[in-house]
Write a structure and sequence with these properties.
Elements (H helix, E strand, L loop, with lengths): L1 H6 L2 H9 L5 H19 L2 E4 L1 H16 L11 E5 L26 H8 L3 E6 L33 H8 L5 E6 L5 H7 L2 E4 L19 E6 L2 H11 L17 H7 L6 E5 L9 H16 L3 E5 L7 H16 L20 H12 L2 H13 L6 H22 L4 E5 L15 H5 L6 H6 L2 E9 L6 E8 L4 H15 L5 H8 L5 H8 L1
Parallel strand pairs: 2-3, 2-4, 7-8, 7-9
Antiparallel strand pairs: 1-3, 4-6, 5-6, 5-10, 9-11, 10-11
């Protein structure tokens, strides 16, 4: 039965719990046991409180028994990226500078999860302050990809994606600044969606780059992701960037899963030289299947996308530098040298020097330079102008098509340590995902099989206009019907192969 719980889709678990065929306490306990069993190998979590999760599950069981109407995911466990403030557990952003910090309030997304009856299992690992593409820059050690424990799970939200792939959670929450939901989803054979900017509240989420950050759902299939999206989305007056607009009909779109009559654009600039043959092969096959299913496929050119990487790596570090200035050792967090022998400035310097990791320091330096007097217009100002041109490329493309598609990343998951000393090579992994963050549109990653080169998952990116999130799910769910769900036999086998895995024990019992 444990194996069945761990591999069952979230919506089906929600149905069983609502029908009282299984309790939330039983379901939550099964995932907590799996976390205990495989965490030494995967390291997807930074904090788990078993008693807190089981207490919450018991409360949901009582609500259901009393006949209260909750969301379709009531009682279902969820893992939360450790950028979201949650009063029950430490919030560290995977940085030593916030080690042990307990938030005095909950993020809006956390409150909505709780209102929907979901049970938070714990906080997942990430690149420090979301600064990375591999979850190797975490101040608490890297996360390992369940498909191959010697490989990265993507980043910055590798912990959330790995937790799904390792059957440690059926749902997870991530944040996406330049691909941090979608790229880990692609690397782990799971689903991850970046909603339209402003579609999900950022209140209570530790900021990296405020004009780019967006919180979104992670799951093992399109329908579960859409249901989670529905729970967390919507206007929030506590977030000045929140959109006071109806949530797009994402669940209905995922259920429709039909591309008949849709115009789908393949972005010419997001492919070719530098893309692994296996990635291009699977992407091309997926496009052909969508066309055979009734979509009209059109090649689209977005010429400014070639400047997206440079644009992003001026805007993002500039905003990060500004946001991280608050970690000054004076109000909260790490304080080094507070012995009466050092000045305030020395304490700040020592604390930030020891508290921030190498990648965060690199980005702070880049951003501070780009914002400095005499360079602001040449760098940050010019990047904002290019950002406008990239948004215009999207607008022109969406005049011709309903959705755009591309690979999620040029390669499959690389080995841990392979690119740590080559920042540019690491940054190149975000070539396909960055443009949609710059434009603030909706985008998602859906599995399209494994690469014939190395047997690792390949992600298929779907992009749609602002507030066209339902189109992302419509195409992604249709693709899932054609090529199979992200959580398939291959991923189940990988989870079963993890040391101590309860999935393995369940398979053996059969």
């Amino acid at each position: 039965m444990t194996n069945d719980i761990l591999t069952t889709p979230a919506l089906e678990l929600g149905r069983r719990i609502a029908a009282r065929e299984q309790s939330s306490t039983e379901v939550t306990g099964a995932f907590l046991d799996q976390i205990d069993a495989v965490e030494p190998a995967v390291h997807a979590f930074l904090a788990v409180d078993r008693d807190l999760a089981l207490r919450r599950a018991g409360e949901v069981d009582a609500q259901i028994a009393a006949g209260e109407r909750l969301s379709p995911l009531a009682g279902v466990p969820v893992a939360v990226k450790d950028l979201l403030c949650y009063q029950g557990l430490p919030t560290t952003a995977a940085s030593r500078i916030l080690e042990g910090w307990m938030s005095p309030y909950d993020a809006t997304v956390v409150r909505r999860l709780q209102a929907g009856g979901l049970v938070i299992l714990g906080k997942t690992n990430l690149d420090e302050f979301a600064s990375g593409s591999s979850t190797e820059s975490s101040g608490y050690g890297p996360t390992h990809n369940p498909w191959d424990l010697e490989r990265i799970p993507g980043g910055s939200g590798g912990g959330s994606a790995a937790a799904l792939a390792a059957c440690e959670a059926p749902l997870a929450i991530g944040t996406d600044t330049g691909g941090s939901i979608r790229q880990p989803a692609a690397m782990t054979g799971t689903v991850g969606v970046k909603p339209t900017y402003g579609g999900v509240s950022r209140f209570g989420i530790i900021a990296m780059a405020s004009s780019l950050d967006q919180c979104g759902p992670c799951a093992r299939n399109a329908a579960d992701a859409a249901a989670l999206h529905q729970v967390i989305a919507g206007y929030d007056p506590q977030d000045s960037t929140s959109l006071d607009r109806p949530v797009p009909p994402v669940r209905q779109a995922a259920e429709r899963a039909d591309v008949t009559g849709m115009r789908i654009g393949v972005v010419r600039e997001l492919g070719g030289e530098g893309y692994a043959p296996g990635v291009e092969a699977r992407f091309g096959e997926a496009v052909a299947q969508l066309e055979a299913a009734g979509a009209e496929v059109i090649e689209v050119s977005c010429p400014r996308f070639e400047q997206a990487l440079a644009t992003y790596y001026l805007i993002m570090p500039s905003e990060l530098s500004s946001n991280l200035a608050r970690y000054d050792a004076m109000r909260y967090g790490l304080r080094v040298g507070d012995d009466g022998q050092h000045s305030v400035e020395q304490v700040m310097r020592l604390s930030r020097g020891q508290g921030f990791g190498a990648e965060v320091k690199r980005r702070i330096i880049l951003g501070t330079y780009a914002l400095s007097a005499g360079y602001y217009d040449a760098y940050y100002g010019s990047a904002q102008k290019m950002r406008t041109l990239i948004a215009r490329d999207f607008a022109a493309a969406f005049d011709r098509v309903d959705a755009l598609v591309s690979p999620v990343a040029p390669t499959t998951a690389f080995k841990l340590g392979e690119k740590v000393d080559d920042p540019l090579a690491m940054y190149m992994g975000d070539l396909c995902t960055i443009p949609s963050n710059l434009a603030g549109i909706a985008a998602g990653s859906f599995p399209c099989g494994v690469s014939p080169d190395d047997g690792l998952p390949v992600g298929f990116q779907v992009m749609a206009p602002a507030l066209g999130d339902d189109q992302v799910y419509r195409v992604g769910a249709a693709l899932e019907r054609l090529v199979g769900p992200g959580y398939d036999a291959a991923l189940s086998d990988r989870a079963a192969a993890l040391p101590g895995s309860l999935v393995s024990m369940g398979k053996d019992a059969k």
